[in-house]
Amino acid sequence: MNEPAIIQKLKKLQSIQPSKEWETKQSAVMEAQVYNGSAPAAKRELGFFSNFLLVLKATFSQPGIMVGTILTIIIVGGGLTTYVVGRQAKPGDSLYFTKEINDQVKLAMRFDREEQNKLKLAMAQERVTEMANLDKEADKEKAEAISKEFKATLNNVKEELDKVSKENSVAVSVKKNNKTTPVASVAVSNNNNIDKTTPDDQGDNVASTSSEEGTFSVATGQTKDGRIEISEPVNVSARQMIEEAETLFANADYDGTIDKLQAVSELLDSANNK
Amino acid sequence: MTSTSTSHKQPSDRLLFLRLKTKDQAAFMRAYEAHRAGIYRFIYFRVNSEAEAQDLTSTVFLKVWSVVQAGKLKDYRSLKGLLYTVARHTVIDYYRQGQESEVSLDDETAQIEVIDDRLDMQALMEQDGDLKLIYSALDQLKPEYREVIMLHFVSELSVKEIAEVIDKKPGNVRVILHRGLEALRKLTQDEGEEEGETEKLSKESNN
User: Fold this and answer.
1) What ipTM goes with this model?
2) Do the Cβ atoms of B106 and B76 come closer than 8 Å?
3) The predicted structure's pLDDT at residue B204
4) Which of residues 1-20 of B touch A (CB under 8 A)?
């Protein structure tokens, strides 16, 4: 006889049962013993809520689960506290590294280069705000750290813009018979206003010009395979505006710096959306 | 006094065990209704007497109730662990007190006693020849193997619960179970072959 057959036969032994007569009689005897002659009211039903509480209590009273729960609360609570406090930290603060980690994570989550640049610009704006709210006389070290961080962030954006310029083919359509189909143009004036024109507004030509008022006119184009290319003047003008923002920051014109960085961000955004 | 109704859904053993820790009488009666037959069977196969099995089953549950009332459930991890541990010790005490000697199925005189007192088993074995073969082989097994096999396949205790009952590690229980089944398989094989040869010889002599 093989093992499954043996097991099957063994399970047949489960059919052995005590007699019904004995069961009935014995149940009554057992009840009498357990309730000790007390009224049936003592036979309370097993309620769902009380059962739930009982299971909960028993589960969390187990040493392993209790220790695990406490550790989880400490780790999660500590992590959240560090995150919240870290968000308020300024360069030079002990928890500033958490803010840096958070920024790095945010950057890592963005795979598009334009999006990364926009985020870096937003970070630079945060540094400007921190600097504006800082007592520079009392916190010289912090001011220095913020300034260093601001410059590093913007240098990074400039490097990225340079890389894009080198990688992308320039698609500025000047003439009507050019191979690229113009789709939009973005004009950025010195006072940071962005003017957008669609191909319909301007016919078939999109020109990259510089007006007397110092307006930059930049263009995007669509190649035959439908890919949108950002023309080099966008990066050039963005780079110039970043440098202007750096100058404004150095002159402690923080509102102007923020406006300038905002304009760069919008310029990149507009060019990207086209 | 009427018996506790079992018509509604039976709560899990874990929940009953938790309620027993609060000395809940209703929970004890539920546990009694749910496990009475299993405990009876466990004892029945060890004392070889229906009447003794009934008495000892009652004793087991009264002992369990006294354990519950004394608040000593911390020593146990599960309801089945509690019930079968108490049942096992009750049977051991029963034999220690010399009330009965363990009966071997190989012993001819004892066999008559067994069959007389266990009509259920007799009927079952008459229906199934293989079952008789297995039951006879079980009797030849080492008590340790037999106990674990019966607890696992007849009483349906998990390896962990058996480990609690016989006070061994689950790994040891698995090993015992494996070896026990292997021994049982060999015994049934040998006995089957012997029976086959006997039948062959008797046919030849008749011819």
Assistant:
1) 0.73
2) no
3) 66
4) 1-4, 11, 14-15, 18-19
Count CB pairs under 8 A between chains A and B.
Answer: 124
- Provide the chain B residues 30-89 that lie in CB contact (below 8 A) with chain A: 30, 32-33, 36-37, 40-41, 44-45, 50, 53-54, 57-58, 61-62, 65
What is the Rg, in whole angstroms, of the alpha carbon atoms belonging to chain B? 20
Task: Count how many domains chain B has.
Answer: 2
CATH (domain of B55): 1.10.1740.10
Among the partner residues B1, B27, B58, nearest to A26 by beta-carbon distance: B58
Does residue B5 fall inside a structural domain? no
- pTM, two decimals, is 0.52
Helix (H) or strand (E) holding B186: helix B170-206
Low-confidence ranges of chain A (pLDDT < 70): 37-48, 91-92, 168-232, 272-274
B152: in domain? yes
Same domain, B61 and B135: no
Lowest-confidence pick of A260-274, B132-146, B174-188: A260-274
Give the DSSP letter of residue B43.
H
DSSP string, A6-43: HHHHHHHGGG----HHHHHHHHHHHHHHHHTT--GGG-
Q: Which domain holds residue B205?
A: 115-207
Which chain B residues have a beta carbon less than 8 Å from that of A13?
A: 41, 45, 124, 131, 135, 150, 154
**Residue B181: inside a domain:** yes
Confidence of residue B2 (pLDDT cuts 50, 70, 90): very low
Any idea what the CATH number is for the domain that residue B165 is in? 1.10.10.10
* Domain range annotation of chain A: 70-109, 113-274
What pLDDT, on a 0 to 100 scale, did the predictor assign at position B151? 94
Residue among B41, B94, B33 at smallest CA distance from B61: B33
